[in-house]
Amino acid sequence: MILAEMRGLVAVIAVGILIAVLFARISAYGEDDSVAAAGVVATTTSTTSTSSTTTAAPVQFDDALAGVRNLCESSERFIEGSESEIEYPGKIPQLAEEFYESVIDGVSDQIRAEYSAALRYYTEYNDLALPHNYDGLTILQSDGGERWGLLASSEPPGVEATRANVAFLCGGIEIPEPPLMSASEFERLSDLADK
To answer: Are 139 and 129 in contact (CB under 8 A)?
Structure first.
């Protein structure tokens, strides 16, 4: 657990440094440098003049910026959905799975493993709980009950690191916490399921 948290923290720091470096490089360009910002490099010699266009850096930056924009917009939709008056069993885990599916392709490589782990967690959680309408006792009595019990009562991998990453990149936005069951509630349901 500590290793996963450390890895998440390192990823968040790496993304922060990347953003700071990219911001500094972009800030260095003025309005007259629009050609330079587009990646055009001109080389002049005494007899000839050549130019070449390099688009790799601006395209990568645009992709990273689009990924962050999608992350923040998806985070806001996740929060709005979780706070809506419409209630149904498994609301948060279902919204969380949709959120992670919508952002996984646009996140930085440095933290993609954490987003993948969180997506796997919510996908498995929902696969086990949805057929039983998210009723804890019924789920625990099913074939996947033991596995769901572990998912519902243990800190999920990747979720806290990705929540921290969203808060960092999206100006303090906090997406909902995972639907963890307290130890006493889990014990109570387990006792009932064993009867």
So the answer is: yes
Beta strands (DSSP E) in 28-95 are: 40-44, 49-53
* Per-residue model confidence as pLDDT tens digits over 113-154: 999 999 999 999 999 999 999 998 899 899 988 899 889 998
Residue 54: partners with Cβ closer than 8 Å, 6 or more residues away: 39, 40, 41
pTM: 0.68
How far is residue 99's CA from residue 180's CA, in Å, rounded to a whole number? 18
Axis-axis angle for helices 91-103, 56-83 (nearest 10): 170
Domain extent, residue 184, equals: 2-194
The span from the CA of 135 to the CA of 51, in Å, is: 66
Q: Is the four-CA dihedral 97, 11, 179, 66 of positive or negative sign?
A: negative
